[in-house]
Design brief:
93 residues, alpha+beta, 2 helices, globular
Length: 93
């Protein structure tokens, strides 16, 4: 139960921080694993493909918090499956 409460609190925080920019040190791209769409419960717009990847049924209209996940390293909850990474050695000019 505690896991879900924490998950929903983090999802609510991501909703409000979605208006902020993505950090400059985010690298790579989405791999379609669908893990972020299961935080803390499975999104009703998440669809599975036969090859094990997933896609969003409303991709063109998805909310900002979905578009920008993970916006920062601190928001990055899907480190084991996510295609994004964060370069801690990046120094913006």
């Amino acid at each position: 139960m505690k896991h879900y409460v924490v998950g929903y609190l983090k999802k609510t925080l991501r909703f409000f921080t979605a208006f902020l920019p993505v950090t400059a040190n985010r690298r790579k791209t989405c791999t379609g694993c669908g893990s972020c769409c299961k935080l803390p419960t499975r999104c009703l717009f998440l669809r599975d493909r036969s090859d094990g990847t997933a896609y969003c049924a409303i991709y063109r209209f998805r909310p900002l918090n979905c578009r920008k996940y993970p916006r920062t390293r601190e928001e990055w909850l899907t480190t084991k499956t996510c295609g994004y990474t964060f370069d801690d050695h990046h120094h913006p000019h």
